Amino acid sequence: MRPYCFGLFVSWLLALSPAAAQERADTFPSRSIKIVVPFPAGGPSDVLARMIGQKMTEDWGQPVVIENRVGANTVLGAQQVAKSAPDGYTLLMAIDSTLTMNQYLYRTPPYDPFNDFAPVTLTAKTMLLLIVNAASEVKSVNELVAKAKAQPGKLNFGAGTITSKLAGLLFNKAAGVETVLVPYNGSAEVAQGVATRSVDFSFDGPSASLSMIQGGQFRVLAKFDPRPFPPAPDVPVITAAVPKLDEITVWLGLVAPKGTPTAIIDKLHAEVAKILADPAIKSKADASGLFPATSTPAEFSAFIRKEAERWSTVVKESGMKYD
What we know:
Blueprint: H1 3-15, H2 18-27, E1 33-37, H3 44-60, E2 64-68, H4 75-82, E3 90-95, H5 96-100, H6 102-105, E4 117-127, E5 129-133, H7 141-150, E6 156-159, H8 162-175, E7 180-183, H9 187-195, E8 201-204, H10 210-215, E9 218-223, E10 249-257, H11 262-277, H12 279-287, H13 297-318
Parallel strand pairs: 1-2, 1-3, 6-7, 6-8
Antiparallel strand pairs: 3-10, 4-10, 5-8, 5-9
């Protein structure tokens, strides 16, 4: 081998070494970062991504761009990130269904949630609510169940994520009722459906509906876990009226393309954890019904697999398929 060629070969090997990867992490980021949100603007994942992105921009001096890549139950956004360069500059704000349910909803899943992504951190565990328009005569879960039993197949519910759609089907089964799903493309559309009374009730997180709840236009009948919800402090946990229904939370998390250097993943994790621990950010997020929560990359990886195992049975029993 010629000396010149040998020198190039050695340089190439050094570029692949852990030390070189660490050096790249030390200068990361040196350009803009993109966070892909697989939902329309205004929903929980979009709101949280923009909070994180704004603070990242301030801390790192590089712009963080939020791209809303909507469609196919978050598949389009997930595919885009999975195929991106594994350099930390393209991230996905994934919702639970992206990483734990879609693989059971498609006969030939278009991406592998376990092998196509590098988990960065959990970012939020939002709260699932059962909501009606305040003009509805239904004042409680028991009244809703009684009305649904009296009119089988006549009542409908709005839902904008796989989790909330499955929650509605689980509600039907546990309560022994037959209500009809009206699918939407995100929380903002769900809130509009309740506001116009296009649906009789909805299953959704609070972020897009919060102003309507606080303004008295929406009534919260129940929440799906026992955490406090200050905008409706007396709202009961749904298991009080429907004991056979398990607690459900909708969560969000950041992932990067598989192969992103560990040092960069760790740097991203540390930054996001710092941002979401900031009292001002946490207070703002809590007020929007987002409830920040973080984890290490290893903890998040284990959490994703545990949640996937849990939901695989629910999806199978629901009979829900998208191809």
